[in-house]
Structures are given as structure tokens and as C-alpha cells.
Write a structure and sequence with these properties.
The chain has about 425 residues and is of the alpha/beta class. It is built from eleven helices and 27 strands.
Length: about 425
């Protein structure tokens, strides 16, 4: 039994799953969270939250829920942010997690002592702990284009992180920049209330309807994943998409330079109809800003009042010393995307980008952490861990290219591997906790 509680940083889905996994293994734990209630970014209006009023899951209910806490069967296939915030609150209540959570505690520093223990600092003081689990997520620090496009823009700009609802777009000549799920949602919202709506994409993306063959689209991919390697799934999925909606070029969108399943899928039922109805104009990448207008790579110049940058987030863990992050938080090699190779006692849950939902993945990671800290799971030798990370990075780079390959995981493959890892190394291995 550890003499002091393990510190978990963050009470979003990753932190909650970790607190539960540690409690299940009778590992003492305290969770430090900057917010006022559990749920993290899913709590609309909470400090740092990127939730907006029209936000819904882009993964289906049955593929998103925690394995040991199913969402109500009468909920929609794609619940909204209020459902998910309520679900996480109910999860907290059902397993009594609140007694181990300290809200209003922003972690400012995590340092390692010579004896291998850790000090976690907040504005109210410090805690000594044998282990730290970083479960803060990585969608809190907006990323803008770097360098910014040349020229000057005389209108208003905002990042999707600050978008809360369509009223911010009403009566504006709106340009949405980006190809992810938020960009598609915001462009669709704008098309109903804005004077005009443009969507700018530098590169092509695969647009997936939320339903295929009458079923949530991701359930079909899940069924294929149990039978086929990803390359074969890619061919089947691309053929199915072409039959269902046609190639992106049919809608004036740029052709994807990557195959399906080689980037995070962009799901939208609303985008393609709004394009075909003429309510959303598609543009290529921006060439320059020009006062009250934006000039695009195809030579067109359009008047714009408002730019919404849907350009993603920086992975930022400011409370960790740079030496612990090595090449950077988004390139940090972690065994099973959890275990720090050089700092025993430092773990990460949720520092990954999944091809599917996040909740089952962080639940699987949390279970490995819980078993390890309880002395019921062993890591392989350090050389084996490092070699495994190298193999993962090579395979991920081959599949996903240079866009954060270290963080990428295949949803179905990862869940299967994590379950097998827990079964196998719970009874054999070399490196146990303390």
C-alpha cells in the first residue's frame, strides 16, 4: 500500500476514469481539478471549456461510453454536450469519486525529488506523492496559424475555442478556416444565420455522414476492425463512402491527399447539403488578408467580417519541466501512450489522438495505471519499452505522416492491445511498482 495518495491532475473524462481505476485497486488517490465540477471541457461555460451550444458527439453513444457505465439506451445515438456533462457527473456519483476530487486547484508545477517521489504545487500549497497521473487533456490552448497569413484584416477574428453559439455569427460575412469537426459544425451554424458563409480548407478531408446503411457510421468501422487490418478497412470504407456520398470533389472540396483512416475522421450530416444548397461556399487555402476581405489561393477575393479559426490546439503542459517532456509534449515517447520511459511514477492518461472516441481509450489506460500502481501489473524491461515506442512511431508515421504521429492510436486496435497487455503482464514481467 502506498503511504501517500497518488495525485491525478484533471477531473475530465481521463481523470475521472483514473480515479475510479485507482479506487477499484484500493490505491489511495487525490484528484486536483481547476474547475468547479467534474467533466472538464464538456462542462459548457466552465473556464477553459471549448463546448458550444450546438455541440454533439461525433462518435456514437455505444462507441463512446465507458465499458462499466453504459449511457442510457433511450439517449440519442449522438448525444449533445449537456448529455455528456450529465453522464460524467452521474459517473462521478455512481462510483463515489467526488470524495477524492479537490476542485478549484490549478496545478502550477510538478517536480521530481532525488528519491523518486514527486511534489505537486498549486496556488494553495504543495503535496508530496509517490506518483502523478497527468489527465488534463490537450484541447485547452488554441493554436492559430504560424506564421499568420500576410496582410492585415480589418474585421473580427476568433478561435473556435471561444465559439459558444450561432448568435456570434448572425448577420456577419463569416469565413470558417479548417477541416475538422468543429469547423464543419460552425460552418453549418453560420449558414443558417450569417449573411454569407465561406469554408476555407488548405487540404482535403474525408467527410463522413453520421449514418451509413442506417447505422451510426463508426459502428460499421468497429465491426470491420474486428475482422480486417486497417489497410483493408480503408479500401472497404472508401468504397462505401463513394457509394453513399461520392468523392469530396463533387462538392467543390479539395481531394484528400491521404487515404481514409489516415487522419481523424470528420463527421457531418449537415455540411454537404448546405454546400449543395449554396449556403456554404468552399474556398481553398488563404493567400493573404486584405482589409475587409480575404484573398484565396485560387485568386478569388471575398468580403469577410468575421474569421473563425478552427485550427486546433497546442499540446501544452506548462506545469511539467521541459526536461520531462523531452522533444515536446506532442512527441513524447510513452510506453502504451501512458508510461514515461525515464521518469518512474509519471503517467499520462489521455495524451493521445484516437481514430474514434476518447472515453474507452482513457478508461483502458486508467486500468493499466491502476493495476501497475497496485502491484498487479508489470512493465517489460526499459529496452523493450523503448523499442516498442520506436515501432509505434514508425508505424504511426507511415500511416498518419508527420502530424503528431507519436500521439496517434487506432481506437479498436488500441483497446484490444491494452486488454491483452493487462491480462498478459498481470502475471508475468520484470518491472513492478516499488
Amino acid at each position: 500500500m502506498l503511504d501517500k495518495p497518488v495525485v491525478v491532475i484533471g477531473a475530465g473524462p481521463a481523470g475521472l476514469a483514473t480515479v475510479k481505476a485507482l479506487r477499484d485497486r484500493h490505491v489511495p488517490v487525490v484528484c486536483l481539478d481547476a474547475g468547479e465540477r467534474p467533466g472538464g471541457l464538456w462542462v459548457f461555460g466552465a473556464p477553459g471549456s471549448s463546448a458550444y451550444r450546438t455541440l454533439h458527439l461525433n462518435t456514437s453513444r455505444t462507441r463512446t461510453e465507458f465499458a462499466d457505465f453504459p449511457m442510457p439506451a433511450d439517449w440519442p445515438d449522438y448525444p449533445d454536450h449537456e448529455h455528456i456533462a450529465d453522464y460524467l457527473a452521474a459517473y462521478t456519483d455512481a462510483f463515489g469519486l467526488a470524495e477524492d476530487i479537490r476542485h478549484g486547484e490549478t496545478v502550477t508545477a510538478v517536480t521530481r525529488a532525488a528519491d523518486g517521489s514527486w511534489t505537486v504545487s498549486t496556488a494553495t500549497g504543495t503535496r508530496q506523492t509517490p506518483a502523478v497521473v497527468v489527465a488534463t487533456g490537450h484541447n485547452a490552448v488554441p493554436r492559430l496559424p504560424e506564421p499568420m497569413y500576410p496582410g492585415r484584416f480589418g474585421g473580427e477574428s476568433m478561435h473556435s475555442h471561444d465559439y459558444r453559439g450561432p448568435e456570434q455569427l448572425a448577420g456577419r460575412r463569416t469565413l470558417v478556416v479548417g477541416g475538422g469537426n468543429s469547423a464543419m459544425d460552425i460552418a453549418v451554424d453560420a449558414s443558417h444565420v450569417a449573411v454569407s458563409t465561406l469554408l476555407s480548407l488548405r487540404r482535403g478531408v474525408w467527410i463522413v455522414p453520421k449514418y451509413l446503411l442506417g447505422r451510426p457510421a463508426d459502428t460499421l468501422n468497429g465491426a470491420l476492425a474486428r475482422r480486417l487490418p486497417w489497410r483493408l478497412r480503408q479500401r472497404v470504407s472508401e468504397r462505401l463512402l463513394r457509394l453513399a456520398v461520392g468523392p469530396p470533389q463533387r462538392y467543390g472540396l479539395p481531394a484528400p491527399s491521404h487515404g481514409f483512416l489516415q487522419d481523424h475522421p470528420t463527421l457531418s450530416d449537415g455540411l454537404l447539403p448546405r454546400i449543395t444548397h449554396g449556403e456554404i461556399g468552399v474556398r481553398p487555402g488563404i493567400e493573404r488578408l486584405d482589409g475587409d476581405a480575404v484573398c484565396f489561393a485560387d485568386g478569388r477575393r471575398d468580403p469577410v467580417d468575421l474569421i473563425v479559426w478552427c485550427t486546433g490546439y497546442r499540446v501544452d503542459l506548462p506545469f511539467l519541466d521541459a526536461a520531462l517532456l523531452g522533444p515536446g509534449a506532442d512527441r513524447l515517447p510513452l510506453y502504451r501512450r501512458i508510461f514515461h520511459l525515464d521518469a518512474p511514477g509519471l503517467f499520462f492518461v489521455g495524451l493521445m489522438q484516437s481514430t474514434g472516441a476518447a472515453l474507452p481509450v482513457v478508461e483502458a489506460q486508467a486500468r493499466l495505471v491502476g493495476a501497475f500502481l497496485a502491484g498487479q501489473y508489470a512493465l517489460p524491461p526499459a529496452a523493450v519499452q523503448r523499442a516498442d515506442c520506436d515501432r509505434h512511431l514508425r508505424a504511426a508515421t507511415e500511416r498518419w505522416g508527420s502530424r503528431r504521429p507519436a500521439m496517434r492510436v487506432d481506437f479498436d486496435v488500441y483497446l484490444a492491445e491494452a486488454a491483452a497487455e493487462l491480462r498478459r503482464r498481470s502475471t508475468e514481467g520484470d518491472v513492478r511498482w516499488r
